[in-house]
Every structure is written in C-alpha cells, then in structure tokens.
Amino acid sequence: MIFETFRIALNGLRTNKLRTFLSMLGIIIGVGAVIAIVSIGSSAREEVTAQISSLGSDLLWVTPGFTAGRATRMESDPRENFTLDIIQYIDDYSPGVTNVVPEVSGSVQLRRGDNTLNSTAVGTSQNFTVVNIYYPERGRFIDQDDLDQSRNSIVLGSNVATELFSDTDPIGQRIRLNYQGRNINFTVVGVMEQKGQGVMGNLDRRVYIPVTTFTNKLSRQNFVDLYYAQFSPGFSSQEARNQIDYFFFQHLGDENLYNIMSQDQILGVLDQVTGTLSLMLGGIAGISLLVGGIGIMNIMLVSVTERTREIGIRKALGAKKRNILGQFLLESLALSSIGGFIGIGLGYAGTYLVTRIGNWPLVLSPVAVMLAFGFSLAIGLFFGIYPAVKAARLDPVDSLSYE
C-alpha cells in the first residue's frame, strides 16, 4: 500500500508539471542558497587560513594602538613610537625573539619609459624574506649595505616585473618611483618569486625597498607601520608575546599604544567572523525555505479542492482516512524532497563556480547539506499536514456531489 500510495502521489504531481515546479522553487532556492553560502564561507576560510599559515607558524605582528585625547581627539599618532631605533632593543631584551622586521608601505606610481604602473612600495629589511618565507626568483633582496647607506635599490614583485619589462631582464635597469609628488630613480636588484594573493593583498604587485630609504627619502618620517617578530626555537608563541609585551609596556608605559597578535589569534578571529557571517547569511537564506513551505501548503490545498470528487470515489470504494492522509502527505514530502535534491545540485554548482572564480579550495559542507535537506523535508511534512488532514476528513457523500 505504501508504494501504491507513493505512485498515486507522484501521478498527482505530474498532472500539473509547471505548477508543481513553481511550488518547489522556494525549496530549491532555499536549499541551494544555504548550501552555497555555508560552503563558500568554508572555502574562503580555508583559503585565508592557508595564506596565514604560509607566513609561518612562528610569527607575531606588533602594530600601533589607538589613544584618544580630550573630546576624542588624538593627542599623537601612536605610530610615532614605532621607530627603527627600538628594533635592536627588542632583540636585546626579548630572548624569545630571533628576528624583528619593520614594515612601512605606501601607494606609488612606477614609470619605465612610456610604461606606468600603480603599485604599493614596502620599506623593510633584509630578514623580510625569512619571516615571510618569500624569496627572490632572480637577483637578490635588500641587504645590510642597502639599509646602512639608504640606497635606491628596489625589488619587484613578479607581476610588476612582467608589466614593466615584458621579456627584458629587469636586473640592473632603472625605474622612476613617484610617491606623493616626489620622483626618485631606483635600480632594480631583484625580482620576487610568484606568490599570488596574500593576507595583505596581491604580493606580486608590490615592490620592496630599504626601510631607511623609505623613511629618509619618501615619507621623511622616522616611524613604521608594524613589526614582524619571529620567536626563537624552543620558545612558545605565548612566551615570546609576553616578552614583547613587557618590553613595550616598559618602553611606552601604556598598553593601549600597541597591539600584539599571534597567528593563532588571527585564525581565531577569522573563524569567529566567518562563522558568524555564514550563520547569519544561512539563516537569511533559510527564510526562503519557509516561503517554499507556504507554497507547498497552498498547492496542496488547491489540489485537495480540485480532487474532491476523486477523494469521494476512493472513500466510497473503501479507502480509509489514513490512506487519504498518507497520499497527500507523500505528495507534500515528494515536493520538498525533489526540490531538496535539485537544491543540493544548485548549491554545489554555485559553490564550484565561486571557488573557481576566486581560485579557492572547494569545500562542500556535508553538515550544511544534511541540515538543509532535512529542514526541507521537515518543511514539507509540516506544511503538508493541514491539507492532508482536510482531505482525510472530507465526507464521501458531499465529495461525490461536489461540482
């Protein structure tokens, strides 16, 4: 009887194919949207996690904090405390730290002949390649002599080298760099390996110069944006963090003037933000499932009205209430389950398309698939109960005389 009832239910849905499809549309969109949003969020989180992990697991980021003066106006720029002079002191007073690398950056325009290119210039030191696991493919990186003499040496990202020099070897060539109206000629000493999109942007579209050249000739300010601190083997992240925290508190006297972030903290914040965002967007997408359930109830009520005489004939031939109830419940569940299966395919296709465009890893969340499909079945059952009960309670005499 179950299979016979299911066959009758499917025949009832096939009678009006367009109406059946339109009633499933809310379920299809809802299931597909929930799966796609959660899976795309997981893929994005996986990509950013991989980018952060590629920087190495032994890094701390030390950045300026924020202080407000009277009437919330800043008394001074906290970056002014982040000078090059204190790097050596951090090394001396923090045995858990093996490398401290400064970084200061700004938007620049590069020119070679008739070719111009907007880029980001990064002022840093020779250990930048070590702490970021990012090395030159050709030539060399900034060395100590470049720093000591504030040389106009420049290392190009791979895309910058390609766009400015095409097939020409850029090593030893000169380019003009414009920063806030200051035009300075630089000599190319190296080209970095291809790295792609990173946490701080597209690394292949950056250029790297000695930090002393940046502060003395470009910004003309003796402070930087942040420090990378690499902790020594045998020391934990927390031990190195505590040492740096102690040094800066003793040096600045105010813990609000600096921030120290570890890789674990950044990943924790990332997981929290992406998880909350995915949950919120998934909940919004889930509303369409409720809309789809209302559509299913509507179509089932119409179906009960249209098939009143059929119900009367079946009851006159001996069909019991549970048979009529089961028929219409199975129709409702068939609508929601078929729509759920199509929605799963739609969600997978959407996730695949977005991850291909973003060049992210494809992460399809099985939990999201099961929850979305299970919720669609629950919606079909819940919104199908009332029409099914209404059909089961019809009086056979009144049904046979219904026009």
Blueprint (SSEs and pairs):
Elements: H1 2-14, H2 17-54, E1 59-64, H3 86-93, E2 97-112, E3 115-124, H4 128-132, E4 136-139, H5 144-149, E5 153-156, H6 158-165, E6 174-179, E7 182-192, E8 197-198, E9 201-202, E10 206-210, H7 211-218, E11 226-231, H8 237-252, E12 258-262, H9 263-306, H10 308-316, H11 321-358, H12 366-392, H13 396-400
Parallel strand pairs: 3-10, 5-7
Antiparallel strand pairs: 1-11, 1-12, 2-3, 2-6, 2-11, 4-7, 5-10, 6-7, 8-9
Helix pairs in contact: 1-11, 2-9, 2-11, 2-12, 9-11, 9-12, 11-12
Domain MacB-like periplasmic core: 20-245
Pfam family, one: FtsX
Membrane topology: Multi-pass membrane protein
Characterise this structure:
It is a single chain. With 403 residues, the protein is an alpha+beta fold. The protein folds into 2 domains: 183 residues, no CATH class; 186 residues, no CATH class. The protein is built from 13 helices and 12 strands. The strands form 2 sheets. Strands 2-3-10-5-7-6 form a 6-stranded mixed β-barrel, surrounded by 4 helices. It has a two-stranded antiparallel ribbon with strand order 8-9. Strand 8 and strand 9 form a beta hairpin. About 1% of the residues have low confidence.
